[in-house]
Amino acid sequence: VPANSVKELVAVAKAQPGKLNYGSGGIGAPGHLSGELFNTLAGVKMTHVPYKGAAPALIDLVAGQIQVYFGNLPVTLPHAKAGRLRSLAVTSAKRATIAPELPTVAEAGVPGFELTPWYGVVTRAGTPKNVVAKLNQEIVEILHAAAMRERISNLGAEPSGITQDQFAVFLKSEAVKWGKLVRDSGARAE
Fold first, then answer.
1. Does an H or E element contain 39, and which?
2. How far, CA to CA in Å, does 74 sit from each of 3, 80, 90, 128, 161?
3. What DSSP line would sit under 167-179, residue for residue?
4. Using one digit for the tens of pLDDT, what is the confidence trace for 97-131?
5. Model's pTM, two decimal places?
6. Distance between CA atoms of 122 and 135, rounded to whole angstroms?
7. Nearest to 30 by CA among 69, 80, 78
8. Biggest alpha carbon–alpha carbon distance for the chain
9. How many CB atoms lie within 10 A of CB 127?
């Protein structure tokens, strides 16, 4: 693909609707939803090619069978550094610590684009608030310990450690955002 930036990728995709193929680890997988979000926000139409896992998609990307892939940074970065792939941006809201030279997709030309994998801890309904608060406090402390921050950063992520109320708001916003995208795109987990 003759694109060295997200803006150039958008231009190529707009000039050739449906001609660029993006691979993912399967229908409904994060890479699939990333591509659909990109299509929607960039106003382009790339064709989704689902694979049975991320590894076969990455192999075909390196081999030139597909042109675009939204993948895990720690897995794709070594290929980019070796010159086998061209990394254009990261999908998170902020630049990644392990690749600060890469802009975010949003700052590189597709405003509003953000896909950040996240993990959370939930408890059984009715767990006393003081227990939830103490659990949250302990988890946040662990996440902010130097060794843990370094470990998480090396995986291409950033620990946040938010309150249970902030997490509840976040979960609702994620459900709305991805629910609409799934409905609009017709994506289904398989």
1. helix 30-42
2. 22, 10, 11, 38, 22
3. HHHHHHHHHHHHH
4. 889 999 999 999 999 999 988 889 999 999 999 99
5. 0.86
6. 10
7. 69
8. 57
9. 12
